[in-house]
Amino acid sequence: GAEGSTLMSYFSKNQIQALKPKITFSTLRDLECPVLQSNDLQGKPEESCSTEELFEWLGAVLNQVSLDNTSSSFLSTYCCPEPNTVVEKAFLCTITGFIIPEKIIQLLEQLCCYFGEPKLAYWLTLTVHGFADSPVSWRESEHGFHKGGENLYNFVIFRNLDYWLQMAVGAHDDCPP
């Protein structure tokens, strides 16, 4: 209709360009990390943590919540699940922007190269967030914002190239395919 053509002419006249994604790197030192076994999603006491425990821990790390479990903290008394191990250095890279699926596949492939020599990491993760107020989520349903606008998936890739895929959506959204 007329509205669509007006918008098109506006965009072409103003030559609006896609913003380049913003990339930030940080190094986390002496980070407590859950011990994971690729073939054990439920976890076993004193052997490995479950997928749910990992997901919760990852949320704390990505939001830079302290894992000290100090009673004086008003923000969080969360601590890393057991069993865990202290990693001297962990790298966190955040890419913010509109990223097409092909680029995500490329990122996954590049991350898997990290398991080449020297074999330092046992596992790594790639988390992809949709915008909280995105109009669509998975399938063909509208994305229900309601409370938190959850709309994400997370790959956990192991050294033997086994992987876990975790998905989270809001209560009013369709489940992913």
Question: What would your notes on this structure say?
Answer:
The protein is α+β, with helices and mostly antiparallel strands and 177 residues long. The chain has two domains: 22-96, no CATH class; 98-176, no CATH class. It contains three helices and five strands, in the order H-E-H-E-H-E-E-E. The strands form two sheets. It has a three-stranded antiparallel sheet, with helices on one face. Strands 1-2 form a two-stranded antiparallel sheet. The longest helix is centred in the first third of the chain and has 13 residues, at 2-14. The protein is globular, with a radius of gyration of 20 Å. The model has no long low-confidence stretch (mean pLDDT 79). One of its GO terms (biological process) is endonucleolytic cleavage in ITS1 to separate SSU-rRNA from 5.8S rRNA and LSU-rRNA from tricistronic rRNA transcript (SSU-rRNA, 5.8S rRNA, LSU-rRNA). It holds the Pfam family Ribonuc_P_40.
Summarize the model shown:
With 177 residues, the protein is of the alpha+beta class. It contains 3 helices and 5 strands, in the order H-E-H-E-H-E-E-E. GO terms for molecular function: ribonuclease MRP activity; ribonuclease P activity.
Summarize the topology.
Elements: H1 2-14, E1 22-34, H2 51-62, E2 84-96, H3 101-113, E3 123-129, E4 151-158, E5 163-169
Antiparallel strand pairs: 1-2, 3-4, 4-5
Protein name: RPP40 protein
GO molecular function: ribonuclease MRP activity; ribonuclease P activity
InterPro entries: RNase_P_Rpp40
